[in-house]
Amino acid sequence: MKKLLGLCLSAILALTAVFGATACSTTSANDYSEYTDDGRLILTIWAPDQYANATIRSRFQAWLDDFNETDKIKELGVYLEFSPFTQLPTTLSTACISGPHMMPDIVIWDRFATPSNTTYLMPIDDLLEEDNIDTSVFLDEAYDELTVNGSQYGLPLDADPWGIYVNMDIVNTYNDQNSASAIDVDSLDTWSELIDAADKLTIRDGSNVTRSGLNTTSADGQFFSFVYTGTGELIDTDENSSAYGDTVMSTDSADIFTDGESMRVYDTLAFFKELYALNLCNTGHGGTDAFGNGLLAMTYGSIYFPQELSSYSIKNYKMLPYPARDLTYINVNTEQGAHGESLVASETDSTGMQNGQVGGMLGGYGLAIPQPVMENMRTDEWRSHVEKAWEVIKLWLLDDEMNESYFTANEVITCRSDLWNNAFYTENTGVIGDILPYLENYKMRPSVAGYEVFESSIVRADIQMLKEGSLTVLATYEKIRDDGNALLRQAQGRS
Q1: Per the structure, how many domains does the chain have?
Q2: CA distance 446 to 266
């Protein structure tokens, strides 16, 4: 309870910082609208902490300034302002409890947090139907991430695939010096090829790593992506399944090595164990600095990563999808971090599942409209803001010209897959061009309540214990399964 009160207090203080002393007042849900000198209604946009990054914030603000000056926005009679928040869901929940005078009109929303926050987001099904919106133009995985129990809570903004970034200067230097064992970056499409390249690119002075081949320090955050490249899952997302919302991991440990889904989770943990055992990464090389300064040859990042790298001298890098599983550790002494037995990634196993495929996790945001928790605060004034906010969202995403202006200015990928044949995408020589051919292989994180906490508080913590040696591969598997099921059932009201 004390923790909850502390979070609420922090959120209220954050709101006060944005809106001033009125954040603590008892202002009603009415008479809160503000207007510009030329009579335009001011609508506020809240964004998550990524938009606090100096480069990303600057680009977004520059686009927003241009957007505000377009005839189409002026015709709507609105003016847009935005603020980023480091704890957006917590801050938003406090605002929605307080009422419209404390709330944003539009929120740039981390899509995977939707199932746990539907109380604060307005369903838009009626708006979609009234305006006869063709939602088939959106990337299915991204659109579905905003769908909970058949209701739609927003429209997807960007497709944010994560991948492996490779410093090509380091690779080219290695290849010049080692022509007989040269690394073909275009062939880093399997687990075993990744291991081999990471080992070659690591420079060691005894046991001390002076240049890291692959970022294993933060590999725990990439676990879902590697499970998926084994064609597996972490959570049962089939709403018709009796195990819906639980982990896919077999509760009978004897079945781990015969159940296809369980086997892939186990293999991914064992693959991580092998990476840790190879001593590929200095513990100080897990951040952007190390990659930007040439101390780390390969790391993980989203499509936004180049914006974070813009302040570094590194310019020659390539983005790859996560490689396909071509190893199994079922008959290997995994506790020693031994190399797995080879598989053919494209073939299927005895359970009928393909061994592996390139791809990974699809992140990204959506545009959503918050709603007051208390129905008596959903006033006519608030509804008038909703009408304007919806018109802005439609203009932003469904007007081809406005959509293109946003994504070219911010250099990310639209979820409007019908626009991917535009020259901005087809002629892109940067990371967008690298990753776009693989985008349809990417998968959203499981859209079930509690997943975000399951990933951050259980999966990552348990894998860190595997890395440190305090848990075996099997014990890590069992702990993720048992603690994960308990947490997920509680979050979903099934405990």
Answers
A1: 2
A2: 18
| CA pseudo-torsion sign 403, 408, 411, 415 | positive
CA distances from 268 to 136, 173, 217, 282 (A): 34, 31, 16, 22
Query: How does 355-366 read in b/e, with b if 16+ C-beta sit within 10 Å?
Result: bbbbbbbbbbbb
Find the helix or strand (DSSP H, E) in which 166 lies: strand 163-167
Assigned domain for 97 exists = yes
Judge whether residue 128 has pLDDT over 70: yes
Tens digit of each residue's pLDDT (9 = 90 or more) over 438-495: 998 999 988 888 998 999 999 999 999 999 999 999 999 999 999 999 999 999 999 7
278 lies in some domain: yes
CB-based burial label for 178 (10 Å; 0-12, 13-18, 19+): exposed
Indicate if the alpha-carbon torsion angle 87, 90, 93, 95 is positive or negative.
negative
CA angle (201 as vertex; 196, 202 as ends), nearest 5: 100
Residue 29's pLDDT is what? Answer: 66
Check residue 323 and report its DSSP letter. Answer: P
Against a cut of 0.90, is the pTM above it? no
Using a 10 angstrom Cβ sphere, with 0-12 exposed, 13-18 middle and 19 or more buried, the burial of residue 421 is exposed
**Do 342 and 383 fall within a single domain?**
no
CB 111 within 8 A of CB 146: yes
Q: Please report, for the chain, how many H helices and E strands are present, in that order.
A: 19, 18
Can you read off the two tokens belonging to residue 205?
């002075």
CA distance 455 to 474: 18
Residues 228 and 146 both lie in one domain? no
CB of 273 within 8 A of CB of 334? yes
In a domain, 426, yes or no: no
> What is the number of other CB atoms lying within 10 angstroms of the CB of residue 326?
23
Burial group, residue 441, by CB count within 10 angstroms (0-12, 13-18, 19+): middle
Does any domain span residue 403? no
Give the angle 221-222-225 at the CA atoms, nearest 5°: 145
**Judgement on whether residues 391 and 249 belong to the same structural domain of the protein:** no
Q: How confident is the model at residue 303 (pLDDT cuts 50, 70, 90)?
A: very high
